[in-house]
Amino acid sequence: MTEVALLSYGAGNVASVQFALERLGATVRLTADPVAIAGAERLILPGVGQAGWAMARLQALGLVGPIRDFPRPLLGVCLGQQLLFEASEEGGGTPMLGLIPGQVRRLQPDPVRTVPHMGWSRLQIVRDDPLLAGLGDESWAYFVHSYVCPDGPATLARADYGDPVPAVVRQANRWGCQFHPERSSDTGAHILRNFLELPA
Q: Residue 112: pLDDT above 90?
């Protein structure tokens, strides 16, 4: 049975992620213990809220080093994806984990696009990857976010929200989903199952 360490640091909706993983047969350990994280088979970094507050919590709990050094599959969810990048505009500039190059920027509203981006958007897969194996052109995911990651070489899939939104990213053994897979019906379950099946 696949084991997952689910980071519980006060900045994520961990219960819904936990239940989604358990429905797929995973054993989930909620933890903020650096030793447990370092030894985990795979790691999920959730996140809801403000980037600066989340990074301060990770620093206070001694988790930044173990996350940066984690050598096996790691998945950032929503704010957790954004934390993988170098910095965010949020709060006037927040240094983040620096695992993927680039700066997270605020979504800009316009007459037909509100902020936050909230609701269902179709995924456009732009690069094959084991995390997205088996997904087709009619895969939809549920988004809730006000900041957007840079669109670059790490992008695996995009959503269209006026401008391209990097919906899934990867750098080495670190993946991110800007959307909430635990709230994204069959698409989200498929992605989480693929994550559980990645070689550890």
A: no
For the entire predicted model, the pTM comes to 0.96
Nearest CA-CA partner of 143 in 107, 111, 108, 183: 183
Give me the amino acid identity at 9.
Answer: Y
Asked if residue 190 lies in contact with residue 130, where contact means CB atoms within 8 angstroms, the answer is no
Query: Scanning the structure block, which residue is given the tokens 């650096």?
Result: 34
Strand partners for 50:
none
Residue 46's nearest CA partner among 88, 73, 72, 11 is: 11
Of 10, 15, 2, nearest to 180 by C-alpha is: 15
Do the beta carbons of residue 61 and residue 23 sit within 8 Å? no
pLDDT mean over 3-25:
94
Closest CA to 150 of 129, 122, 130, 171: 171
Q: Do residues 3 and 27 touch, judged by C-beta distance below 8 A?
A: yes
Distance CA 145, CA 151 (A): 16
* Residues identified as active-site: 78, 180, 182
The answer to whether residues 67 and 58 touch, using CB atoms and an 8 Å cutoff, is yes
